[in-house]
Amino acid sequence: MDAVLATTHVPVTSRFEGWRAHVFEEIESTNTCAGPLPAWSVVRADTQTGGRGRTPDRRWVSGEGGLWLSAVLPCPGSRTKWELLPLAAGWAIVGALRGFGVPDLRLRWPNDIMIGRRKLAGLLVERYRNDTAVVGVGLNVFNHPELDHPELAGQTARLADLVPGAYTVDDTARLVLRALRRMHVHLLGAGFRVVADELNHAWGEPRRVEVTLTGRAHTIEGLFQGIDQHGRLRIVTGREGPQTYDATQVALLRELE
Ligand code: BTN
């Protein structure tokens, strides 16, 4: 995945460990570009001009030095079967980054990769076709998101501050792609139920959270109880008891403790 030769409009295309990789200097969004591509394609860019976050109102700040990558995975069978993919993908990347030496990592539902209260990486998983899913990964490596966006100060983390050493953004791409491929094999082999149980062991202590539902002004406060078999958020609120929400219903989840 040689980014040095890439140009703005014409990607450098190469084979990479079983993936077909398209590398751009600059692109609007790697997810949008990857959408129609066949399984085992990957799109990477040095910068994105319109990087997208999980909710439509959220832009993803994608300056030089970060990993902005979208991997296309095959999703055979029914669409609902693959509901767990976004969570499994986040968890796979957490595992790979731990192996890389990043301390104190955790997953915040649905798939934010956190160091304490700071966000290191975010995922945007989209289905453009029935037989594939695009797993978009934004990982802060050497970039400084808060320099151009001071409102992000204190909210983001970057790999370079956590793991010293001579690695490149390409090395992190390799790490992420290997983790995604392993996760895909595991999902198909172990089954979605097993992976949901594994995820529920991984959340750590139950936390109090505040949830803003999509399109609603008021918030709900409750205790985070992990996920159900479809990957939906389970919280217990004082007033309404146990509730479940899928990722499209939740605009923002804020941890209160
Ligand atoms: C979030 O936390 O809201 C999700 C952020 C996902 C950002 C990545 S960067 C690569 C890919 N292309 C995009 O436009 N978004 C994702």
Question: Could you explain the architecture of this structure?
Answer:
There is one protein chain. The protein has 257 residues and is of the alpha+beta class. The chain has helices at residues 30-34, 85-99, 145-148, 159-162, 169-190, 192-202, and strands at residues 12-16, 19-27, 41-48, 67-74, 105-108, 112-115, 118-129, 132-139, 208-213, 219-227, 233-237, 241-245, 250-255. The protein has an eight-stranded mixed beta sheet. Helix 2 packs across helix 5. The protein is globular. The structure holds biotin (BTN). Biotin (BTN) binds next to helix 1, strand 4, strand 7 and strand 8.
Features:
single chain, 257 residues, alpha+beta, 8-stranded mixed sheet, 13 strands, 35% strand, globular, disordered N terminus, binds biotin
Short summary:
The chain contains six helices and 13 strands. It is α+β, with helices and mostly antiparallel strands and 257 residues long.
SSE topology:
Blueprint lengths: L11 E5 L2 E9 L2 H5 L6 E8 L18 E8 L10 H15 L5 E4 L3 E4 L2 E12 L2 E8 L5 H4 L10 H4 L6 H22 L1 H11 L5 E6 L5 E9 L5 E5 L3 E5 L4 E6 L2
Parallel strand pairs: 2-3
Antiparallel strand pairs: 1-2, 3-4, 4-8, 5-6, 6-7, 7-8, 9-10, 9-13, 10-11, 11-12
Helix pairs in contact: 2-5, 5-6
The structure holds biotin (BTN).
